[in-house]
Amino acid sequence: MATLEIDRGAAAAKPSTSRSVDMKLEIVVIPVSDVDRAKAFYARLGWRLDADFAAGDGWRVIQFTPPGSACSVIFGSNVTAAAPGSARGLYLIVSDIEAARKDLLDRGIEVSEPFHGAGDVHAGPDEPYLFGSVRLSGADPKRGSYSSFASFSDPDGNGWLFQEITTRLPGRIAADGTNFASTADLAAALRRAAVAHGEHEKRTGGHDENWADWYADYIVREQAGQPLPS
């Protein structure tokens, strides 16, 4: 995203009363030079291997899906004419940037330290696709949603980014008020609600028997970007 201001304005606009045809992003093609090397790398990431098909004329396609993702990636031989390593700015949304980094480091994958941007600029000098050239070290001090990043690359140089999102902008959630891509995301939301509820009980001076309702209200509000319960 270029700016949060633009997205907030779009989210606040009155939704259309007519329903368009659903269009679900299914596949992103990434160009690689060595198919087996790329396959080994994405397997090390812990991604699910969905397919490895080959046919005549040197055609081969491999598909991987990141944990919790509804979109997959494919690469192979004679799959794309793009130059190997030219795919940049591939975003992986996570609810905990430190946990995501640790998972990759534990798998032996090099990943950058967390970083954030000055305003809406969060690129490095070698990452022009990130709308600028200013990168500040460390996660966002306020830990604002959409504001903390870490980067890594596959062996060909295709560039991936972790982006930490805990609270979605209005209009970016499901009809029931929640949008969890995985059980891990839901578990993280429950842990945040538990901490907040503990502070709530300290303020009220007693045990809240309706904690389940409080948790539900907290999680829905957090996802919708609304004021959180106190």
Number of domains: 3
Topology as H/E string? Answer: HEHEEEEHEEEEHH
How much of the polypeptide forms β-strand, as a percent range? 15-25%
Helix content: 25-40%
CATH architecture field of the largest domain: Roll
Task: Write down the CATH class of the largest domain.
Answer: Alpha Beta
Helix-strand category: alpha/beta
The CATH homologous superfamily of the largest domain: 2,3-Dihydroxybiphenyl 1,2-Dioxygenase, domain 1
Strand order in space, largest sheet: 1-4-3-2
> What is the count of β-strands?
9
| CA radius of gyration | 20 Å
**Secondary structure tally, helices:** 5
Mean pLDDT: 82
CATH topology of the largest domain: 2,3-Dihydroxybiphenyl 1,2-Dioxygenase, domain 1
Low-confidence stretches: 1-8, 10-14, 121-125
Shape: elongated
Distance between the termini: 31 Å
Largest sheet data? 4 strands, mixed
Using brief descriptors, characterize the structure shown.
230 residues; 2,3-Dihydroxybiphenyl 1,2-Dioxygenase, domain 1; alpha/beta; 3 domains; 9 strands; 3-stranded mixed beta sheet
Can you give me a brief rundown of this structure?
This protein is an alpha/beta fold and 230 residues long. The protein has five helices and nine strands; from the N terminus they run αβαββββαββββαα.
Detailed description of the structure:
- The chain is of the alpha/beta class.
- It has 3 domains: 24-83, Roll (2,3-Dihydroxybiphenyl 1,2-Dioxygenase, domain 1), CATH 3.10.180.10; 88-166, 2,3-Dihydroxybiphenyl 1,2-Dioxygenase, domain 1 (Roll), CATH 3.10.180; 183-224, no CATH class.
- 28% of the residues lie in helices and 19% in strands.
- The protein contains 5 helices and 9 strands, in the order αβαββββαββββαα.
- The protein has helices spanning 4-12, 35-44, 97-106, 183-204, 211-224; strands spanning 27-29, 48-54, 60-65, 72-77, 90-94, 115-116, 136-137, 148-153, 159-164.
- The strands form 3 sheets. A 4-stranded mixed β-sheet has the order 1-4-3-2, covered by helices on one side. The protein has a 3-stranded mixed β-sheet with strand order 5-9-8, covered by helices on one side.
- Helix 4 (183-204) crosses helix 5.
- The radius of gyration is 20 Å and the shape is elongated.
- 17% of the residues are buried.
- Residues 1-8, 10-14 and 121-125 have low confidence and may be disordered.
